[in-house]
Amino acid sequence: HLSFRKGELIHVREQKDASWYSGQLRGKIGWFPRSYVRPATELEIQNSKNII
């Protein structure tokens, strides 16, 4: 199980089935429901790369 907050970008590692993803966030790896997330926009991805 992977805990996250609204607005955080999760690196998706694997899709178990149509309902579940495995992802990595803040050094932790876990499963989470696909229905809880949406794909990041290009702008969101670029902005996250600018955060130190």
UniProtKB/TrEMBL annotation:
Residues 1-42 form the SH3 domain. Pfam families: SH3_2 (PF07653). Keywords: SH3 domain. The keyword rRNA-binding does not apply. The keyword Cytoplasm does not apply. Gene3D superfamilies: SH3 Domains. This is SH3 domain-containing protein. It comes from Rotaria magnacalcarata.
